[in-house]
Amino acid sequence: MPTNPVKPFPYGALRALGPGALGLSTYASRIQAGYSETMTQGRATTPVSVPESVSLAVVDGWWRAANYLSVGQIYLLDNPLMQRPLAAADIKPRLLGHWGTTPALNLVYAHLNRVILQRDLDVIYIAGPGHGGPGMVANGYLDGTYSELYSDISEDREGLRKLFRQFSFPGGIPSHASPETPGSIHEGGELGYSVVHAYGAALDNPDLVVACVVGDGEAETATLAASWHLNKFLNPATDGAVLPILNLNGYKIANPSFLARIPEAELLELFRGYGYSPRMVAGGFDGEDPMKTHQRFAEALELALDDIAAIQKDAREAGQTVRPMWPLLILKTPKGWTGPKVVDGLPVENTWRAHQVPLAGVRQNPEHLAELQAWLESYRPDELFDAEGKLVAELQVNRPLGSRRMSSNPHANGGLLMKSLCLPTLESNAVDISDGRGALAEPTRVLGGWLRDVLTENPDNFRVFGPDETASNRLDDVYDVTAKAWQGEVLPTDENLSHDGKVIEVLSENLTQGLLEGYLLTGRHGLFSSYEAFIHVVDSMFNQYAKWLDSSADVEWRRPVASFNYLLSSHVWRQDHNGFSHQDPGFLDHVVNKRASIVRIYLPADANSLLVTASHCLRSKNYVNVIVAGKQPSPTFLSIDEARAHGARGLSIWDWAGTEVAGEEPDVVVACAGDVPTLEAMAAVQILKKEIPELRVRFINVVDLMRLQDSTEHPHGLTSDAFDALFTPDKPVIFAFHGYPALVHRLTYRRTNHRNIHVRGFNERGTTTTPFDMLMMNDLDRYRLVMDVIRRVPKLEKTYAPLSQRMDDERFAHRAYTREFGEDSADVSGVQGLPFTAHEGRTDSTGDDNAPLTRD
User: Fold this and answer.
1) What is the C-alpha separation between 620 and 771, in angstroms, rounded?
2) Angle at 13 between CA 12 and CA 14, to 5 degrees
3) Radius of gyration for the chain, computed over Cα atoms and rounded to the nearest angstrom
4) Are strands 439-441 and 634-636 parallel, antiparallel or unpaired?
5) Residue 213 pairs with which residues in a beta bridge?
6) Contact call for residues 545 and 732 (beta carbons, < 8 A)
7) SS3 59
């Protein structure tokens, strides 16, 4: 218990009398008055002293109230307190939402409030079952938080009417625990991500308990099935705790669930094998008194919290380093508990029929209307709410104060807690090109050096996540200052494993994605590094998270969180050795589908541009940033200051790489986006400079892909006039692109000169071959680009047909070379013929990087 000089309210003496001596109402009102006294004495959020126990009768009343509010949200337009018999006009015309999972969610919430009060805990609640929205909204309303955030949803009869009406109603709120729902960091629109979000939230949050209810249907999804293993990453000394609560209600939409149909002993052994200490509580079956379930669940919950406290004490005070067996609760209840047992002669409670809306057609079916009336009356609303619709004082004692309410916990609105990163300067890691452009560097290795410094400056606020590829993607300099998080056995042959590590690697893109989401949504910062081809594994998770950010931006009380940053390396043009399965740049196309207010895509051409881009992305908020960068040695084209200027513009004319003459129109524009396409485009221009010296070529590099869109479609987009000034309104544009060519056409379809834009990129041709042969297979090599210029610039095709033929011959010759020698020839594998001579090495310097990019 935290100490405080304020004199505590004498709860002990009051509890000695108990509700039996005073009456429940008087007892409750005096407890509440004591809370008010502590608040007026200066305590900002939590009471100085808390009751050792809230009556389970009070918990039961809260549960019944939450159930009543949940049913009301699904069915009622009016008559929220049923102060007159229900009429057809009181019922919504479209009955939407899901009842089956809600009673158990409400039961867990009611009991968590009790232990928060009892132990002064810092808890957030994650509702994993997909359609738990009614329960989360109901409990947020009972907490008082909902009315504080939405003043029109007041704690009275009219507020209740509006609360019910808005649910799954046009202009209202969704049926999930969406961003509009106080206390939620997890919508549950797509199942499977509750546990991974819970563990992400607990990392580096030593005082937080994340209570995570998991549906037994949800438990069948791939991500959830893997998420049980995340207890192997939780450090009890420095992280918070996750308490998984598996709700076995037996059914999904139309089928039984696996975990509910295996023997209890087998289920318990399964979770022991995962590394948990499980406890099972069953209740609600065969007409059993609910108070017995309350008693059993209260005991199991308190034992679980005792276990968590003991584990953390052993780690923090005794230095215990053996991986603990964290507690896990299994709550077995009927699906649709407390709802209609039989409808139209068919069983409903404890069957799959309770999943959604048990009573359909209530407006048209008087018998169903009467059954709904009886269902709502079974909760005895006159005992729960006063005549004006306010929760009675007897039940308000189960309402924690201030930010101790799960619906008002700042960890569930992470922007309230977020601190900006302390970012080191870039100069100390930048590649020095003072001896001339072209210094060879591995861009992601250069970035890894800077990320090492970011971790040094932000040891408890920043993490790196990835599927076993941190070193493979050349970020392993981070191991100079931290290791990989690992709570398991460590062998002498292992490297870079530690209980205190801030890098998390697990061979599941789903888990690393979900962990970072939970980490960001609770107010921290991070980076997710992955192979480009396999980031598609999280396409659907990206969808869900982008939609969450999109919706959050419209919720006034939600504060912005740090952006989700993807670093995609080992990309398509340097996966020649792994073959076709590893060659896919299509994640970019997928990302562009989302709202322009959310997504950003960057294709830095060299190491210094990558540094500038990463620094910008780590400063940004509420975006999904996708960075694609290579890890193989490649030329550095720009100094760090030039990279800053280039990044601020998003795309630039590189006059030193082109051949245009000042004051004269170019004959052709050669544009590029991506590291390998930039190198090939530059090589093509040098061939043109040598072979057609009179040709005026403008060279444009694009680092911010969304600059190609019109300014009316994306906030980074160029205006039509600005685009025409760069790409011309009528000259041929040969565009060498990292990804699928159609994406550039999609982004530029409204441009004046779109008909003259010709894009080369990945055309779904790949195999195990050499890097240059991969380029030739997809017509992105320098010789093909020269041929494109000749064919598209007026008159060149007639006068330079022999050169075009020679370029074709070069392609055949290089392919033959690879087939004979198994590698690319030196004149295409290096930087020969480019407008610089590559050199090795770099020097360190100091400088300032406080100026962000001009946009965002």
Assistant:
1) 34
2) 90
3) 31
4) antiparallel
5) 127, 245
6) no
7) helix
Alpha carbons 410 and 205: distance in angstroms, whole number: 12
For residue 847, which amino acid is it?
G
- For 543, counting Cβ atoms within 10 Å of its Cβ (0-12 exposed, 13-18 middle, 19+ buried), the class is middle
pLDDT number for residue 45: 36
Cα torsion 131, 136, 141, 144 to 10°: value is: -160
First-to-last C-alpha distance (Å) of the chain: 43
C-alpha distances in Å from residue 292, one per residue of 56, 60, 286: 10, 11, 13
All domains of the chain in start order, with CATH:
1-52 (no CATH), 54-401 (3.40.50.970), 439-636 (3.40.50.970), 655-769+771-823 (3.40.50.920)
Q: Write the DSSP symbol of residue 256.
A: B
The residue whose two tokens read 């990279």 is 643
Distance CA 810, CA 772 (A): 12
Beta strands in 200-240 (DSSP E): 208-215
Q: How far apart are CA 279 and CA 329, in angstroms?
A: 5
458-483, pLDDT tens digit by residue?
A: 999 999 999 988 999 999 999 999 99
Please report how many Cα atoms fall inside a 13 Å half-sphere around the Cα of residue 83, on the Cβ side: 13
Sheet with 733-737: list strands edge to edge.
651-653, 697-702, 668-673, 733-737, 757-760
Question: Which stretches in the chain have pLDDT values below 50?
Answer: 1-51, 841-856
- Alpha-carbon gap, residue 605 to 699, rounded angstroms: 13
Spatial separation of the C-alpha atoms in residues 453 and 431, rounded to whole Å = 16
Identify any residues that bridge with 842 across adjacent strands, giving them in sequence order.
none
> Could you tell me where the beta strands, DSSP code E, fall in 86-135?
122-127
Q: What torsion do the CA atoms of 747, 751, 755, 757 make, to the nearest 10 degrees?
A: -60
Question: Percent helix, strand and coil across the chain, each rounded to 5?
Answer: 45, 15, 45
How far apart CA 230 and CA 511 sit, in angstroms, is 8
What pLDDT, on the 0 to 100 scale, is given for residue 843? 32
User: Measured between alpha carbons, how far is 442 from 436 in angstroms, rounded to an integer?
Assistant: 17
Could you tell me if 231 and 275 are in contact, meaning their C-beta atoms sit under 8 angstroms apart? yes
User: How far is Cα 603 from Cα 587, in angstroms, rounded to an integer?
Assistant: 13
Q: CB atoms < 10 A from the CB of 636, how many?
A: 28
**Spatial separation of the C-alpha atoms in residues 455 and 502, rounded to whole Å:** 8
Q: Are 200 and 516 in contact (CB under 8 A)?
A: yes
State whether the Cα torsion 678-683-684-686 is positive or negative.
positive
What confidence score (pLDDT) does residue 131 get?
Answer: 79
